[in-house]
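Ticket reopened. Same input as before:
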Amino acid sequence: MSKWRSVPFNRMMVVWSTGLSLLDARPVPPTTAGDHSPDPPLIVITPARGWVSLKLGDLWEYRDLLYFLVWRDVKVRYKQTALGAAWAIMQPVFTMVIFSLFFGKLARIPSEGLPYPIFSYAALLPWQYFAQSVSQSSDSLVGSAALIRKVYFPRLVVPLAGVLAGLVDFAIAFLVLLAMLLYYGIALTPSLLLLPLFLLLAMITALGVGLWLSALNVQYRDVRYIVPFFVQFWLFATPVVYPSSLLSEPWRSFYGLNPMVGVVEGFRWALLGISPPSPMIAASAAVALLLLISGAFYFRRMEQTFADVV
Amino acid sequence: MSDIAIRVEQLSKRYRIGQGRSPRYDTLRDRIAGAIAAPLRGLSSAARRANAGSRLGTNGPEDDYLWALREVSLEIKRGEIVGIIGRNGAGKSTLLKILSRISQPTEGFAEIYGRVGSLLEVGTGFHPELTGRENIYLNGALLGMKKAEIGRKLDAIVAFAEIERFIDTPVKFYSSGMYVRLAFAVAAHLEPEILLVDEVLAVGDAAFQKKCLGKMGAVAKEGRTVVFVSHDMTNISVLCPTALLFESGQIALRGMSTTVIEHYLDQRTDGRSEASWELEQAPGDELAKIMGVRVCTQDRVSAHSFALTEPILLVIDYLILRDQVRVNPVFVVKNSMNITVFSTSNFEDPVWGARPSASGHYRAHCLVPAHLLNEGHYVVSALVVHETRLVRASAEEVVGFSVYDNGATRGDYVGEWTGIVRPRCHWSTAELYHEELHVYDP
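Engineering reply: fixed in the latest deploy. New output:
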């Protein structure tokens, strides 16, 4: 009787706390008589209902798997393509060229006194990372259906790998940016040191959105069709092709709730040394964290049925 | 150290199979359309779904749900090797999925005392573009191994899979045999305290299967706990001392694997072990009729399944309707490939063989010796022939039985034993000395 209760709570959290809910206040199931095992079980499997803990300890336990999944995604991404990793450069570069032609030359969208190509490229860099990560991770669970039905591992690893794998493409595309900075003779400022923070903000946002969408995708395959449209819509709600100074005040604050606004403004500031992001960056960051935390809990809640539904 | 490895209490699992013919995932449109069409019904069903599973059988029309497991309780001791058998859909795989934490129970709980490795499929997560070596790492990590651990075992895995030359070739260029060997090799080198295996040994060629079974046996000898689901009764009886029989989500029987297998096969054999007729319907003509045919054990108890080591008794009841005719009963036994394995009659019986009989009711017994039939399913036809050649009555394929391998006659060999018959031949061996080597004189 007492053995079941005697499992130290912190140990369950850290080691293998399977499906044990933080908020689940169900009575302890009775155990049979004749129980003479002094050890607590390593794994307790119970039906979990409602909101459950994130089991981050379990995630840590499987860090090697995360590493190999990221590594696989990176390794496989440009296999059997003629141009290979050059695609990681060509995608943002060609987008930048087209944007410069249409938005810079034809539409004459202001670019805060900077050459339009570098103005848009500095924003495209985090944007493409974000867009790619969102579409990768939202499709990741359905794409790994075979794994999910046959192997146990913390499912959080799957969308997380999708978000991390995009960093390699980001790094390659970043080299082009450095070349462009040289070409346009733009000097780096100390604000560059804050760049990783803005990248982190982009990662958090991408993961938050990716968690929501990947979990929804398991249940509703509509997500697959919504994502491209959704990403495109989000592009125009983010100051990638235009400066956010185009917006007038009541709207601009509201607009700041979009975490990618903070990311893009932050990137331009850190790399090109133009005006720093508005204080709305705090709101951006808060929204991004909210997305991540709510996404993670929603994901964990839905995770219980992934194997049965996917 | 506790002596229990796995404890399962009142475990139930319910699957939703409602709207059976639609795909398993919904679309938003269905949900929205449903909600608009019947808002109240939508709400109440959503509420019902929200606390689905809170009580057995209290929610929803029962036919919307399928109980894959029903209140299963079970204890498996440390070091025990348990086989699980049962028809498809009996709940075997569902139990393993819950124990390996892939899917969640609806009711009840399970406790596991030790590190679990589960092998529900061989080669899950293999990526065709990656090389053998890379896939070993990826697959190993999926199965829960650490990078360093995989590195340590890499050579052993490669050697076990016999793919040394191709280790740096992408697996998409592998033959299917190589692929399966590599996949099993990774899994075989997982070293959990509790190993859950689902029907993964049915891969590769016979030689590799043998190697896999050998590896499983070795794992078991190291004192680890193994739960093994299989449809292959031979594998179960060779590997597992005890077995569980699942029937519609419940444990129907637990015991010595030979007993459990026998029980299972008894139920499963398609043919009946007995057939009998009323006089009007009985097969035959105005001279002879077959009244009944039976398959039973030596002790004359009707039975469906027999170990290789058991004799099988075939019994026929027949009627002779005219005086002083010579008739003989005949049995024809065919295997599941529809090959006639043997036919037999009592022609050479000194008393009954050639003798004309008086009219009346007769019963003949035919004892099929042990160590004759190989494992498999058999159907029996019975005939009554007149003057050794004229078939007067015939009951075609009216009873059946199966023969299984209880492992008693295979030494330590664990693979498939080919052949239609399985005689136990007499062997003798002697060492030859040098001067005898060139003389062939048995």
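Residues 19-25, 38-60 of chain B have pLDDT under 50 and may be disordered. The radius of gyration of chain B is 29 Å. Please confirm and we'll close it.
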